[in-house]
């Protein structure tokens, strides 16, 4: 028997039988309460939290499924209209097209210059219309003026 329990056992032996029964009843009452407080209650809280996270994730999944997909986007320009679209939209964006080479149906290489902010906005608008930049060589000076050579094609 461990040496720590020997003094406790001797003390237990000195107690009156009535005191032993009272301590045993107290231990029998406290044991389930301690087990509940230390083991079962935290597990119940963790289960409730997991259920709430699960419901939140289900709601998020449902909301994500309701979002419009990329397939709902308006059809982009056809291959013959791509050079005209690029010339018109670059002029509207304040960009100066220096050179435009048609590389086949739906593919154009061009060089242009203008403000960096205008160039990036123009590229975003083109992407929304179904025109993808497949190659980009960009030089920007200290005044945020950009010179770009890029290849664009229909998605």
TrEMBL record:
Key word Cell inner membrane present: yes
Location of the protein in the cell: Cell inner membrane
A Pfam family this chain is assigned to: T2SSM
Keyword tags: Cell inner membrane, Cell membrane, Membrane, Protein transport, Transmembrane, Transmembrane helix, Transport
Domain of life of the source: Bacteria
Topology relative to the membrane: Single-pass membrane protein
Cellular component, GO annotation: plasma membrane; type II protein secretion system complex
UniProt key word Transmembrane helix: yes
InterPro entries in the record: T2SS_GspM, T2SS_M_periplasmic_sf
Family listed: Belongs to the GSP M family.
Record protein name field: General secretion pathway protein M
Species for this entry: Metapseudomonas furukawaii
